[in-house]
Amino acid sequence: MYNENYVIFKGTKDGVTVIFDPEVSFETLCTQLEKKVAEAGKFFDNVKTSLAFKGRIFTEEEEETLLKIIAKHTTMEITFVKTENNEIKRLSDLLEKELAPFNLAKFHKGSLRNGQKIEFEGSVIVVGDVNPGAEIKAGGNIIILGQLKGMAHAGCKGMTDAFVSAIYMAPVQLRIADIITRFPEENKKGPKPPEYAFVQDGQIFVMALS
């Protein structure tokens, strides 16, 4: 069934934010973006604003394609483009600068595919996606600068104050110390903000990162 909300435009005090569904194909997003921009083209004409892409991580080529679609149907003057990619790169560089010299964290740049596994006695930071069938096991925290759809086990040596965070949290299984939880299917669909999981009163709680 076709969903009109794969691409959502929102006006903010900082400019225009476009929220993309993380699950559907890039081609579907392009089709809906073109339809919505064409319908609302005059609304954006001669507007000078910043533009933010949220909800999904795109390659540079995909970002360029999206911007071309917007430029094709409107005379909007875009002063700055903020994407998940440039925010992730900034955060990744900061984390690596602060933590790597002390061997406190293992950095992995790139997505993990089915069958791949990372195990480290400290914290693990992945700049990419953790796909179904991939697994991360860390003695400390787990930070995913991408989508978490595989298995994640933080605090594997009994550290109950460890946490797991991800830009998009939809793991097959999530474990902190010896506490295990599975995400309901309804929590694995549609756009949502970055989240983190932690232990409180012997249970795993998941909250949005604000």
From TrEMBL:
Top-level division of the source organism's lineage: Bacteria
UniProt cross-references to SUPFAM superfamilies, sorted A to Z: Cell-division inhibitor MinC, C-terminal domain
UniProt keyword Transport present: no
Pfam (any one): MinC_C
Classification via InterPro entries: CAP/MinC_C (IPR016098), MinC (IPR013033), MinC_C_sf (IPR036145), MinC_N_1 (IPR055219), Septum_form_inhib_MinC_C (IPR005526)
Ranges for domain Septum site-determining protein MinC N-terminal: 7-79
Family per record: Belongs to the MinC family.
Job description of the protein: Cell division inhibitor that blocks the formation of polar Z ring septums. Rapidly oscillates between the poles of the cell to destabilize FtsZ filaments that have formed before they mature into polar Z rings. Prevents FtsZ polymerization.
Protein name per the record: Probable septum site-determining protein MinC
The species this protein was found in: Anaerotignum faecicola
Gene: minC
